[in-house]
Amino acid sequence: MKGLKMTDIATWGLPDEFAGDTTNNLIARIQHYRFQQKHQLLDGTKIIPKIETCINVMRAYDEFGEDFPVAVDVESYTDDELLD
Questions:
Q1: What is this structure's pTM?
Q2: What phi and psi values does residue 32 have, to the nearest 5 degrees?
Q3: Confidence grade of residue 1 (pLDDT, cut at 50, 70, 90)
């Protein structure tokens, strides 16, 4: 698509200090990324990534670093309001 910029695509946030630390247990990193980090769509809707999404984000971050964004897909998250 002509004129499309990376800022036009919603991407998952980078793992923070704990979730991004590969010396921490992977399950603990995923739990932290999923429930402690805040995630939202470009319109401000709060979302929670699915477990598979968290694994993909961790894999991309661990293998490629912060320069490899993972796009948000409608099937990759749960609406935060559904969990209240």
A1: 0.83
A2: -65, -50
A3: very low
